[in-house]
Here is the input.
Amino acid sequence: MQERQNPMQNAQQEILSGRLGFESLRKYSAPYVSQHRLTVGRPPHLPCFSGQFGINELGEGQTVHQSRIEPEVEFETSFTARDGVLVTVILEGKMEFSLDTTPYCFEVEDTPIALAWTNQTPVAVARRSRQADTLEKVQVHTPLSFFDAAWRAESGGFFDSHTQVLAWNPGTSASRAAKTLMQDQSASPLRKRMATARFAVEAMDSLIENLERLQGSRPQQRISVARAYVEQTAERRPSLGEIAAATGYSVSSLQRAYRATFGLTVIEHQRQILLDYAMASLRKGGVSVGQAALAAGYSNPTNFSSAFQRAFGLSPSQVSIT
Here is the structure.
């Protein structure tokens, strides 16, 4: 007699094959479990991840999705996200994803991170989960039909944009609402629904507050904030998409404003800062040219030496000797 797989094992096979979308995931798993361990293969079953999962509908097409993923192997999922506005509060861990092949990566260090984007049409989303990289997040998806002309007018164009990712500190209220929803799994159905609705309200309120802050800052102030962010995070080498999201720009508008204001691109400035760090390290001593190259983001010492020579008129070895 052939072993029958449970709904979560079926879901796991669909995840690993890249065929599973949100609608199918809800159909396979939401009615069955809130705590789960997904496996694939028979026999033996290969553990993929364990954790917590839930999807709740609030009406008018709005849904709240909470999950805690604890990967046991590295895997990717891909799906097509329907049009709407997605607000995510990341409570713990790293979230790697791409929207129509544009990559993003956000990792919680001390405080939760809020993300939001609008897609006017369905968009291809891919997510990568790496072994031992726990991810705990709560999301609310709101269809575009929810937002009337007044909402759109006050969003500064965000609700009319497409895949422009914003990132900000969600604040105490939205963070607390997300944590409550994740932790209160034994509550009554009524209290769970109240916690779900509270998170949706607090997350959207946090988004609106962030949009108001961005609109209240003048263009020159905004690009100065972007420059400061590049300087503060250069050693971590965030992607262009992450920098744009953290400073309230689309990638293209950030590039245009940065070059027009400072005469170089964001990545050129980032590399310049790292070369300055390399120069300081070599002058101080105690590091090799190879180590300085890696710290500056160059895996090839020859490329590092060429860039260093162009920037300072000296080779790294000359600085190291002196």
User: Anything to note?
Assistant: The chain has a mean pLDDT of 80. Residues 189-216 form the longest helix (28 residues). The longest strand covers residues 84-99.
